[in-house]
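Case study 2.
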Amino acid sequence: YEKHQKSNGGNVRNGHSKKKVRTSFGESEILVPRDREASFNPMIVPKRGSIVDGIENVIVSLYAKGMSNSDIEEQIREVYNFEVSTSTISRITEKISGDVVAWQNRPLEPVYLIVWMDGIVFKVRENSKVINKTVYIAVGLRRDGKKEVLGLWLGKNESAAFWMSVLTDIRARGTEDILITATDNLNGFTDTIKNVFPESKTQICVVHQIRNACRYVVWKDKKAFTADMKHIYNAPNQEAAKMALEDFAQKWDDKYSYAIKSWRDNWEVCIPPNTYC
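Prediction:
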């Protein structure tokens, strides 16, 4: 109802209350309207809320980058010149837990054309010690041509046994078939994939193969060695790749026989026939 008019119901305006809000522009004091029945709930700054204008997103972003609650509290104080308690920061970051769980368990596509799988090692602090932990990641190429991160899984170290649990999780979330799996040359990985997706073709990551072949090449030979090796994996078809491997072997077999053996041992899974169209 308009100012100075009587209310049509039993509830009436009851002045204002002061409230401090925190935004990316700093801390401000506002007047929040009140009513006798305390039923009015502001839309922009809800009851018991004092952080607006993207500050929550800033806190979540800092938390995702690995900062502790106390570090975030100090950063907000230095940048925005106001206090946000660690309990408030905890409450904000806990909001995303449900979204994370939902993302981890979301249904997947029934078929992926290619799935790349690898482990990334990070140093993390646990019980006052810095230890290595592996984040297992799987990225799938969908039939519409778009890539999708299928999931992230945390383990102590990369192993075929842990990859079994990852693949089983992917299968349980609706994926029925993977046409090609691209992996590193982890011992037992190919057999693990075959146990879960028996029809999938496994291809070893060419980058990992190159690194394995170059592992013991001395510095003065590395430039020429890698230039010659490039003819193998850049060949237009498999026959040309085989000829490039033979030329490569004639030049380098006496000095780096293990590199030639590595290519020949992994040939079927590194450069399979379905690589070329």
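The longest helix spans residues 86-104.
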